[in-house]
Every structure is written in structure tokens, then in C-alpha cells.
Amino acid sequence: MSTLNKNQVVTGECRLSFTNLFEPVAMKEGDTPKYSVTVIVPKTDTKTIAAIKAAIQAAAEAGAQKHFGGRVPTNVNSTFKDGDTETNDMGDLQKEKYPEYANSYYIRVSTKFKPKVLDNNHQEIIDPTEIYSGVYGRVSMTFFAYSGDGKRGVSAVLNNVMKTRDGEPLVTILSGEEFGE
């Protein structure tokens, strides 16, 4: 894990989910298609968590004048969420739907620009089947303050991804047996 500037973080090894790193996807109709990934940081990775929290604070301080009325909020709203306590819009714990979020933090990062996806040897991965929900990797992201549509806080943009190792896929792949004989 390393920090390149106050707002940029390169994580330690994390689990990746909802991987859209080879083709941009619009989250809903009318949205700009983006490359994206959800980064699941285990709570045991205290160095990455501390670096992300420091980058969130640095982004809030840098954006205080433009986005927060000239002052830094006491509790900065951020897209870095606790997988054990975060709820969806119906009040259900996210870890109930996504058990991989338990004992972890998670953050969804995206970009309009195609990120580099590298292997451990710093070679670019071009086969999209190499990167899937459940793979392990390291992610470079840059945090920034935002305000608009009645919301303000700190989020992060995706820079690049490095695959560190394979993992158990987080999606169910049906075999075709559901059609019977």
C-alpha cells in the first residue's frame, strides 16, 4: 500500500466486485458510461483504511472553500462505507445481500477513462475473463470533494488496477441444468 499524494491511495490487497474495467457501463439509462469497480478492503488492512481516511480528510480540506462553504465538515460524507453497518434504502444491512462486505469496508470507484489493468509483473491484462467479481488486486484511486444536486461529500475516482491473485467468484454461474431434460 502506498500514498502518492495526499488525495491518492494505492490499496493493499483487496477483493474486487462489480468489475467493469474493460467496457464502460451506464449505471442507469441516460448516465455517462464509466469504467468501475467496487473495492472491498478487509478491516484487518489497517494501513489501507488509515490511508483512505487520511485521503478523504485531505480532499475535504482541499475542497472546503468550493464545496463546503469555506469550512471542513466535522463528519465528512464519503463513499467509503463500513460493510458491517451500512444499510440499503430499505434499511437492510448491505452485508445481508453481499456477505463479502462483512468485516470489511467498501467503496465503488469509477472513471470515464479506460484504466490500466495490470498483472503482478506490470504487464497489461487484455483478456477480460481474467478480471471478475471475486478476484484480488490493488487499486489506485484519487479522492475529491464534490457538491451538487443537494449532496456534498468526498468520493474517489478510479485510476488503475493490478490483479494480485485469483479468488472465488462472487457470482453464481448456472450450468444450464435449470432447463431439465
Describe this structure in words.
This protein is mainly beta. The protein is built from three helices and nine strands. Strands 1, 2, 3, 4, 5, 6, 7, 8 and 9 form a nine-stranded mixed β-sheet that branches. A hairpin with an 8-residue loop joins strand 3 (14-25) and strand 4 (34-42).
Give the CA-CA distance, first to last residue.
51 Å
Radius of gyration, in Å, reads 17 Å
Count of β-strands: 9
Which stretches are low in confidence, meaning pLDDT under 50 for 5 or more residues running?
none
Output the helix-strand order.
EEEEHHEHEEEE
Average pLDDT, to the nearest integer?
91
The gross shape turns out to be globular
Biggest β-sheet: count, sense, barrel? 9 strands, mixed
Main traits of this protein?
181 residues, nine-stranded mixed β-sheet, 3 helices
What is the topological layout?
Elements: E1 2-5, E2 8-10, E3 14-25, E4 34-42, H1 46-62, H2 64-67, E5 81-82, H3 94-97, E6 104-111, E7 117-118, E8 136-148, E9 151-165
Parallel strand pairs: 7-9
Antiparallel strand pairs: 1-2, 2-8, 3-4, 3-8, 4-6, 5-6, 8-9
Provide a brief overview of the structure:
This protein is mainly beta and 181 residues long.
